[in-house]
Amino acid sequence: MIREKEKDLRVILDCDVLICGGGIAGVAAAIAAAREGAKVVLTEREYALGGLATLGLITIYLPMCDGLGHQAEYGLVEELLRLSIKHGAEKDCTKLFFEPHSEAERRVGPRLSAQFNPEFFALEMEKLLLELGVDIQYGTLVCGTVMKAGGKVDAVIVENKAERCAIRCKSVVDATGDSYVAQYAGAPQALYRSGNGLASWYYYLTGGQLSLRMYGLSDVMPGENQSSDSQDNDIDNVIAGSRRYHGLDGAELSRMVSDGHQYMLRDMLEHRESAPDFVPVTMSTIPLLRMTRRLVGAYEMDDGELGAAMSDSVGTFCDWRKRGPMYELPFRCLYSPAVPNLVVAGRNISVTDAMWDITRVIPVCAVSGQAAGTAAAMGDDFPALDVSRLQARLTAAGVRLHCGDILK
Q1: For residue 202, what are the contacts with CB-CB under 8 A and spacing of at least 6?
Q2: 314 in helix, strand or coil?
Q3: Core vs surface per residue 171-195: b (16+ CB within 10 A) or e
Q4: Other beta carbons less than 10 A from residue 204's beta carbon
Q5: Which among 17, 244, 335, 348 counts the fewest CB atoms within 10 Å?
């Protein structure tokens, strides 16, 4: 063992709301908190926003409708979808929900989704946050927390290229994807024990056509988005011989990345044998981890709660994998009484393993992010927060809270 010398840390920023993680959930939280008038700081360990959606090249804005003619998610989730395709969708943009169509047409048509360009999306999200006055701290890694009386977070310890330092905050949103803030703050956690399959997505150019190669584990809806001109070899659900990765150990994560790179290289070279003009354009620059560690909150939601009315609902969402199911997201899934001023968003929220696969995707991350950011701007004691006030603000921002509001 080596003991690191203790030292005083400089407080580089002081804010109302600190958001850790700049993926879709973190971006949604930052937009919501800033629009509520809070002084917002967002930290991101990479150097672009969007997380898996952009840096991971998982450029599929999965369905935000129930497949039976009803849009399931509203508010920032819709705003971000429109932002992602502002300069044109790459593929499979569903026009049924952007143009006048009957419910009957929507029932049998493709679900509300799109494939977007990652660079445009990342840059447009950054532009929006800057316009809202959000202080974005890139290349900043969460390293710990400083706690105060009552179990609240006083500051988050971070490290950037210049120094190890601290950011003081009134409330904090953990949107890291791996629940790092919750872990350091001592909030109860749960691991995804099944591990993550190997995947390495990349874009390539051949025959003058730019395409996305979903190599390895991919989020493809059964029977959906399979147009007549789809290329079957653009999707591989399993990389033969690959293992599962939990994604929280440095050595294991390094192996996952290098394994993915080498499988991807072989895949590229095989394509070049049959198509000499095949050229890879870009590849995922972060590990494609779906589920790792989450909060055990005041409530754990399960996938069996279809249509269940939640009195503290902060938004509705659907199951991207199949038509029909619609859910209400309880605010209780976003906090733990153990750390009153900490709220989580994205794939950190408190759900069972069966539900985790439904809530980890872009639309639901935007729903939970908007709720978390709005709540964080309202106060610093989430178990005691007046949920009716939160719901009123979300409703004013265009969010639908209950399935009955949509299906009636």
Answers
A1: 57, 212, 213, 215, 264, 268, 280, 281, 282, 283, 284
A2: strand
A3: bbbbbbbbbbbbbbbebeebebeeb
A4: 21
A5: 244
Residue 248 tokens, joined? 């929280």
Separation in Å, CA 199 to CA 124, 231, 365: 26, 18, 21
In eight-state DSSP terms, residue 45 is S
Residue 3: DSSP 8-state: P
Which stretches of 265-307 are assigned E, i.e. beta strand?
Answer: 279-283, 293-295
Predicted confidence at residue 241, as pLDDT, reads 66
pLDDT digits (tens, 9 = 90+) for 370-403: 999 999 999 999 999 999 999 999 999 999 999 9
Which residues are CB-neighbours of 133 under 8 A, at least 6 positions away? 34, 39, 40
Tell me the pLDDT tens digit for each residue of 56-100. 999 999 988 898 888 999 999 999 999 999 998 888 777 756 666
Q: How far apart are CA 19 and CA 87, in angstroms?
A: 28
The three-class DSSP label of residue 10 is strand
Instruction: Look up tokens 């990765």; give the residue.
Output: 245
Q: Which of 396, 375, 400 is nearest to 386 (CA)?
A: 375
Long-range interactions of 252-260: CB distance < 8 A, separation 24+: 253/287, 256/196, 256/198, 256/287, 257/287, 259/198, 260/198, 260/199, 260/200, 260/216, 260/284, 260/287, 260/288
235: left (phi over 0), alpha (psi -120 to 50) or beta: beta
Cα(392)–Cα(401) distance, rounded to whole angstroms?
A: 10
Dist CA 122 CA 286 (whole Å): 14
DSSP secondary structure letter of residue 393: H
What is the C-alpha separation between 8 and 131, in angstroms, rounded?
34
Joined tokens for residue 96: 């049924």
